Amino acid sequence: MDENVLIEAVPNFSEGRRTDVIDELTAAIQAPEVQLLHRASDWDHNRTVLTIAGPPQAVLRGLFKAIEVAIVRIDLGRQQGAHPRLGAADVVPLVPIRNISLDECVVLARQLGRQIGNELDLPVYLYAAAATRPERRNLADIRRGEYEALRQEIHRPARLPDFGPAKIGPAGAVIVGARSFLIAFNVFLRTADVAVAKAIARQIRESSGGLPAVKALGLLVDGQAQVSMNLVDFLTTPPHAVVEAIQREAIHLNTEIDRSELIGLIPQDAVLAAAASALLLPDLTTDRILEVALCQQTGSLCRAPQWRAKRCFGER
Questions:
Q1: How far is CA 247 from CA 44, 168, 244, in A?
Q2: Does one domain contain both 147 and 31?
Q3: 25 with 70: CB under 8 angstroms?
Q4: Residue 216: which CATH number?
Q5: Of the given ranges (104-113, 242-251, 299-308), which has the lowest mean pLDDT?
Q6: Among 178, 203, 232, residue at a domain's last position
Q7: pLDDT band at 308 (very low <50, low <70, confident <90, very high)
Q8: 20 to 30 A Cα–Cα from 212, which one of 24, 42, 119, 186?
Q9: Residue 243 CB contacts under 8 Å (≥ 6 apart), including other chains
């Protein structure tokens, strides 16, 4: 892997149930020099999120290969799930990690979008920092009405794609963009009433006057109400602040939080901030973390100590 320039990509595929298809997507995306950092699939959302990192052109090659698999193996005419979707390869964000700017990732996103449109004959929409139109910066605005609505509307001027044909097949469209790091974070409530989750989502999301840099939906997942979120700037609104806000709203609606769920990866600083808040340690910094100190002493990544402790999060 090129040690000088590093980007992350977090493609979301509209398949979370068929393990053979998910395995194919995972194998395809791991082009030379690309590291698979995380794989998460959910049956109810019917969605898989892969997190990869590597040199920019290697990451683009891996993404293109995985999208080739997705458009053959995923038929949106049959696919159903709780999560909104526009395409088989639904959304493909590029994130600057090291020695590369967001503007440079915009160039890469447009390069990938053009290649998908030209070589795979798919409609492509650019979003976030890569958007060419202000009304397409917000992912939810592009995806409004989902695949079913786009089939009827793609010929309209407002819905014409940035690249590729103005026609929709079984694979739908691809949304490609460049953005800063976000945290995909869900909170389950101790109720099956999805109306409660939707009410809480309205209260906390920025677009409804809630917390800044928070996007939220209320969903029913595996018979349980869920507040599904994207935290687009965790320095502005960290995960622990969101959990506190949801808990307050939940109490008002005669329920409470059951557990939380992380999709993909989370920056160390976000976890550290949560620990500092919970432990009332405002001066907690990374140099007080044992594993960090060990890594700093050795000058490289090191194996964490094998603590013999029971997991206290996420067990059932």
A1: 24, 42, 5
A2: yes
A3: yes
A4: 3.30.70.670
A5: 299-308
A6: 178
A7: very low
A8: 42
A9: 187, 257, 260
